[in-house]
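Thread: quick sanity check before group meeting

JM: Hey all, I'm pulling together slides for Thursday and realized we never actually wrote out the predicted structure for the chain we discussed last week. Dropping the sequence here so it's in one place. If anyone has concerns about the input, flag it before I start.
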Amino acid sequence: MARTRLTPERESEMYAAVLDLLREVGYDALTMDAVAARTRSSKATLYRQWGSKAELAVKALRHNKPGGLAEIDTGSLRGDFHAALGRADDCQMEKDSALMRGLMHAVHENPDLHQALRELLIEPEMTGLDMLLRRAVDRGELRPDNPALKYVPHMLIGAFAARQLVEDRAVDRAFLIDYVDSVILPALGV
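JM (edit): ok, ran it. Output follows.
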């Protein structure tokens, strides 16, 4: 059956409601019934539009994100990282970090959520990051055989996870910029 297109405004409204519910009750307690009630829509519409709770939750997260990393090209790797970090505001970053921590817990019990996160959020980000790093190699900023290249995603994800664990503080732009300049770029020989 063909999907009826929602208006961009209605889609944004629905995604905002899903994110609010995720923050309120967590992924495990999120139901299509609750989303339908919150958005004044039918469960049939939700399933027709998104297919599953996992797809709806991850697309709601994705919708909130600014453009992909692949679009950023300032002419230097440091500039690209700073431009990427400049797109997010601290308040949104804190809310998104809390949400991602909750989802990372739910991933262990929900293989469909894990698959949706990988396909719709993680893989597109990794592709964009690879392009950003490849351009730096092409410009001669990075050696193509630098062993740290393959660990850049791990370093970035580690920054998000470790700040909360080690310092009991939310990740913010200032922390991430300092982390990029102090850890990632030196590891890459920049």
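AS: nice. The chain has a mean pLDDT of 88. The two ends are 52 Å apart (CA to CA).
JM: adding both to the slides.
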